[in-house]
User: Fold this.
Amino acid sequence: MDVKSVSDRPNLIEFPDHPALTHLINTYFETLNNQDFDAAAALFAPCGILFPPFDTAMEGQEAITAYLKAEARGLQLFPQNCSVQPAESDGYECQVTGKVQTPIFAVNVGWKFQVNSNFQIESARIKLLASMEELLKLKG
Assistant:
């Protein structure tokens, strides 16, 4: 498994020996940070799935676009660490950790991407990496 810290380059990640994968995942973060939700959804395979925290899965590029337009406005994503390994079937499994800044607070987040051999995102699982205590503090 390749692992690299990117704390010195807060908006870029790098998968050594995997330039196409590096480009795909960086483009995902860049399009979301630029609020270009159509472009972000286009990075998914036609039947790709987004698994957001606290919501049901969104399947297909149109559903992903609609979800991002409704829920991701104003967010800024800061990937910090990443790892990659071959997927069990075909392609790659990429894990990224970092922070998401909302208009009100920041939270640690983990992203788990399944990427096919055509370098399309088959699935993206987003997990908040905060304790329940930390989340409750945000509410008040």
Summary: The beta strands are 2-5, 44-51, 58-59, 76-86, 92-101, 106-115, 121-128. Confidence is low (pLDDT under 50) at residues 1-10. The chain is about 30% helix and 40% strand.
